[in-house]
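Sample entry (332 residues):
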Amino acid sequence: MNVRRHLIPRTALAAAAALGLATLSACASDDAAATNNKGKLDVVASFYPMQYLAEQIGGKHVEVTTLTEPGQEPHDLEISAKQRAQLEESDAALYLKGLQPNVDEAISQSGIKTKIDATTLTSLEEHGTEVGGHAEEHADEGAEGEDGHEGHDHGHDHGGKDPHIWLDPVRFGEVAEGVGKAFAKADPKHRATYEKNTEALVKKLKGLDTEFRNGLKDTKSKVFITTHAAFGYLAERYGLTEEAISGLDPEGEPSANRVRELQKMAKADGVTTVFYETLVSDKTARTLADDTELKTDVLDPIEGITEKSRGDDYVQVMRSNLKSLRTALGAE
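Predicted structure, serialized as tokens:
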């Protein structure tokens, strides 16, 4: 997947310098479009799901750059000086507060005109390792951590809220609507196009929701095991239970108690598969699968698209996830 880079000509940089820092920190208005020298809205997206929204909604009227390279694990992204300068030169930043602390800090400190935080465009909930009603069973799991999982946080501050909203097509559609409105406000000249593209994307996401709802309605099991707790919203939406080896942090290490518990739970709930993902090590998932004689498969949290991804974009990978879930859960 090619990530487009927007290069500012020297003449444009000189003009920006002449205007002064006040111009960089000015608020976007409905009266004048904030666009680059090509007449496009210059958008910096924090990672792939935000990039996907920006490209789908903005179409030919936006120039989108992502801070997170394909194949790069987004949670621990470090922002370079070059990227900070890029933020200052852009018209809008689209990000998901709580997922990438360093991105949150860089955007808050920048003078970028339009800051779009996806978490303000839908509702967030608390999800952790125990999703779907199993929290009480895990309340007294030893002293490795507050919930029995060693290294659960690893410096990630999600504020108690699960940031993985894009894995729920309904919530992602709500975010899309908000992004469309923000683009129209920042660049009113192309409002009609943004509104049309937003409507088309929301319709596509509603169709995806229907596919998941129908595809997961009748399954032999409702429990699935994942590497980290990225699929809480998806599980909640479609009546499933996610049991994660680690917590919200994909690099977290589970406690011995947690591993034993998952082994017992897998047998009791008829679990057939341990899911791993493409951007982090599959070692823990495969070890658990081997110990419990289970299969392994990919359930992609779609934090980035690479050559390993089972699809070229968000919708294709989500459909691949649906297929994997149906197989693992014994869909009829």
